[in-house]
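step=encode ok
step=design start
structure_in=
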């Protein structure tokens, strides 16, 4: 079964890639498709909602079964503290976002039996994490996860993808789903989680209760899909918990580099920090220059930086490589600081905001040197010799 993942305009393409990469680690009859075209959808037809309290943020609502325009719908690091009022972009109707699925299906001639799941920063009027229709479509809200799960967003989003797939297969319409979900949480994938904070227990339990197992059997759902879904949810849970345990242990992780040069944190379940070619160039430069280098001195290392960028970019155009490095070492340009900020943010996303990421990122010291603090004995099998 093919599952297409798409996004609205303001969802980073890299987030979509991370979710697909995570899901694709678990093999089975479900395959996840990320369009080779960076097809995203603009959506300017939204309203803005002001959330004034914790109740506004955390409480899911239920629609009336009698609403005509919804009758066939199917639903399918440390926590941040919200500062109110929160401003949220949302749609007026639960079905409004499905216009994107229709456009995508028509554009790529997607079969009716294939699923299309949209990742969107646009909220829905019932304050749900996700929602599905009767036509194998669903959408998942990508924002505000920092208030519920102390981890990278890719983990709860991947979990939501799998749970939505199962719910699309289990329930024929909204009314059936609402009659079968658990309004009192039991740690099952079909917990309704009226208080959205219960999503953490739901993810950590990663269970399909006996009643829901019976529904899966009665609906004759492919056992391979069920098996792969369970393996994926347990795998996502395991990866998420390994990061939490690592953070609580306060120890430093060993680091290796994949063949593309991205750093991999071995003791965080081999969590890869994905950097762009120019970010990798800078990162490896400071790994090799352990004592650190001042920004004003970067021009002295121009040839070394060019060789590193040549290795990581795969470009044959020396003029483009030279131009990028010239921008990087020019103290009048913002390129160097922009790359440092993005590298720091990527380690922060993996390791949290409590300061642990600073050992792995490129940090400025009081004497104006920039350096990577990590003990070099933790770096294993360094094979890049540009």
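sequence_out=
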């Amino acid at each position: 079964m093919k599952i297409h993942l798409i996004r609205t305009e303001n969802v980073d393409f890299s987030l979509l890639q991370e979710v697909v990469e995570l899901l694709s680690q678990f093999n089975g009859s479900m395959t996840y498709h990320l369009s080779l075209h960076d097809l995203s959808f603009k959506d300017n037809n939204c309203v803005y909602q002001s959330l004034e309290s914790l109740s506004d943020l955390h409480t899911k609502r239920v629609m009336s079964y009698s609403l005509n325009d919804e009758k066939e719908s199917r639903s399918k690091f440390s926590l941040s503290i919200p500062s109110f009022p929160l401003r949220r972009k949302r749609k007026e109707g639960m079905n409004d976002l499905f216009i994107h699925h229709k456009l995508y299906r028509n554009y790529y001639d997607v079969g009716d039996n294939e699923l299309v799941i949209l990742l969107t920063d646009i909220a829905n009027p019932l304050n749900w994490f996700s929602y599905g229709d009767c036509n194998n479509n669903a959408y998942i809200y990508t924002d505000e996860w920092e208030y519920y799960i102390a981890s990278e967003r890719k983990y709860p989003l991947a979990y939501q993808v799998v749970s939505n797939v199962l719910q699309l297969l289990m329930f024929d319409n909204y009314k059936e789903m609402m009659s079968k979900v658990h309004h009192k949480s039991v740690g099952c994938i079909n917990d309704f989680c009226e208080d959205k904070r219960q999503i953490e227990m739901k993810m950590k339990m990663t269970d399909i209760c006996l009643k829901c197992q019976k529904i899966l059997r009665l609906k004759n759902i492919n056992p391979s899909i069920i098996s792969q879904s369970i393996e994926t949810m347990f795998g996502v849970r395991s990866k998420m918990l390994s990061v939490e345990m690592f953070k609580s242990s306060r120890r430093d992780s060993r680091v290796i580099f994949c063949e593309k040069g991205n750093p991999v944190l071995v003791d965080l379940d081999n969590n890869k920090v994905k950097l762009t070619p120019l970010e990798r160039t800078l990162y490896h430069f400071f790994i090799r220059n352990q004592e650190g280098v001042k920004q004003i001195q970067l021009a002295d290392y121009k040839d070394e930086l060019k060789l590193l960028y040549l290795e990581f970019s795969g470009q044959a155009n020396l003029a483009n490589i030279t131009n990028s490095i010239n921008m990087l070492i020019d103290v009048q340009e913002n390129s160097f600081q922009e790359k440092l900020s993005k590298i720091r943010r990527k380690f922060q996303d993996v390791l949290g905001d409590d300061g642990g990421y600073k050992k792995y990122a490129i940090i400025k010291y009081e004497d104006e040197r920039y350096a990577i603090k990590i003990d070099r004995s933790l770096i294993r099998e360094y094979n890049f010799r540009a």
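step=design ok
step=annotate ok -> Residues 2-248 form a domain with the Collagenase (Catalytic Domain) fold (CATH 3.40.390).
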